[in-house]
Amino acid sequence: MRPLTDTTPKPLLKVGRKSLIEYHIEHLVAAGFTDIVINHAHLGEQIERTLGDGQRYGAQLYYSPEGSALETGGGIFNALPLLGNDPFLVINGDIWCNYPFAQLRRRLTGLAHLVLVNNPEHNPEGDFCLIQQRVYQNGSPRLTFSGIGVYHPELFKECTPGRFSLVPLLTQAMRIGKVSGEHYQGQWIDIGTPERLQQLELQKVIN
Question: In terms of pTM, does the model score above 0.70?
Answer without folding.
Answer: yes
